[in-house]
């Protein structure tokens, strides 16, 4: 987010002759397998029903606002460079100058309906695309005193005909309204609601009205969400959180999801992009395969039954379905094998892959799950002092994941989601660390196994004060290569016959026992030993830590998590 009290508005002559840096993956995207069951994956266009969309990632610069003489402190606005014949623009693109130019906008065209559908009443009789009736000037950087308007930016909102929606804004450098054919509006029933996502720019100029610019995303996301991001932005000088936006996203009506990869293509995607998961060089609690864990004495406990049961191969005797009702849980072996199983078995470890549609089937998410038999206790950082905690954060069974998001237009790796305890973050491909070709690195934190994109120490608490739970990550000889060590456990969109889901995946209860202990006493002793001047700050941070740190409670499995069907949390 940018904020400022004044701007340097860049004139066209400043930047029009300078191509922005662009990002390319380390290696070219391969030719994906097709075979007899080939689909529309990576074909460049996707059919949505009455519309067909094409992804444009090459742009012409329009205008930039810089916060200083350093161009990288500003944001720039672009329009699609080459729109294929028959397709139409839906709006312009905006991004920060701090990062390489890497984005997209979708252009659309109407496709002929099958004869069986060539009857209608009401809105469906109208064309899918129409010119706007007019444009409304939303904001301008010009205060009315400049003689030369070429250095100013003008933001225009298309005014759609009745029954249609605008999907983006247009930016110009002159106060003259754009041509009506510059963009198209889309019939309302072919659109979906969108919401603001990340704040790109917020001004507080003394020369003009405040302007805020956000990236946008569909409101209805997840595996069953039909909303499609168009790649445009939202801007306003008065909008507040909770208000409905005056632009929309597209909606996919093609239930076949023809742009999603087939099984051969999924394997090729994993082999090409599968990250290497590095564990800390001093990691004690390593991962294992689920099968190794079950084969080496994991036990099933049932509330009210004092006798635990061994778990059958593949987890075939685990109760399946339902919800986590607390009636059953898994625990480590109760015999001498416990001292072995708790530390995992790296040689058997693998990533368990769930493949699902994202953003209306225009992207594929590959959620990669890793299992560890035990999650170690946390280490507290208070300034320069590190305090190993005896119990806080530890529990039997640990399921963690990261998610690859791949464009179904091109097959390009777009971003990776790093799951971090109760939250996480999406990291764009340009900010990833690559180890070989287009394979990224994922770092697993010592003890807690949260995922991070770069080595270092991450604080769960207050990074500014240096107070919180440490998450230490580094490269080592302890790693799992997900491009070879993986198993696809679910891809529902391919049909029930394509991927056989393992029995243990249907187990919706906890993978470890619940043990309540007063770990806050342990933290209270630490707080009381601190200087009085920092005690309140430290206690306030402790109070905000998630409750999962203060008791031992095994996690539920992947299928019980809300992101199994839904989108990632951030």
The assigned structural class equals mainly beta
Radius of gyration: 26 Å
Strand order of the largest sheet: 31-30-29-26-25-38
Termini separation comes to: 16 Å
Number of helices: 6
Major sheet summary line: 6 strands, mixed
Share of helix, binned = under 10%
- The shape is globular
SS elements, strand count: 40
**Which blocks of ≥5 consecutive residues have pLDDT under 50?**
1-17, 146-150
Q: Mean pLDDT score, rounded?
A: 87
User: Strand portion, in percent?
Assistant: 25-35%
Note down, in words, how this protein is organized.
By secondary structure, the protein is mostly beta strands. It contains six helices and 40 strands. The strands form eleven sheets. A six-stranded mixed sheet has the order 31-30-29-26-25-38, with helices on one face. Strand 35 and strand 36 form a beta hairpin. The N terminus is likely disordered.
For this entry, give a set of tags.
single chain, 570 residues, mainly beta, 6 helices, Vacuolar protein sorting-associated protein 62, Vps62
Structural topology:
Elements: E1 3-4, E2 8-10, H1 12-15, E3 45-47, E4 51-56, E5 59-66, E6 75-80, E7 93-96, E8 105-110, E9 129-130, E10 134-140, E11 154-159, E12 164-165, E13 170-172, E14 185-187, E15 191-192, E16 194-203, E17 212-218, E18 227-228, E19 233-236, E20 249-251, H2 263-273, E21 276-279, H3 290-295, E22 299-302, E23 309-310, E24 328-331, H4 338-341, E25 351-358, E26 363-375, E27 379-382, E28 385-388, E29 395-407, E30 413-420, E31 423-428, E32 434-436, E33 439-444, E34 451-452, E35 456-462, E36 467-473, E37 479-481, E38 486-490, E39 514-516, H5 519-528, H6 532-544, E40 551-553
Parallel strand pairs: 1-16, 21-33, 25-38
Antiparallel strand pairs: 2-5, 3-4, 4-8, 5-6, 6-7, 9-14, 10-11, 11-13, 12-14, 15-20, 16-17, 17-19, 18-20, 21-37, 22-23, 22-24, 25-26, 26-29, 27-28, 27-36, 29-30, 30-31, 32-33, 33-34, 35-36, 39-40
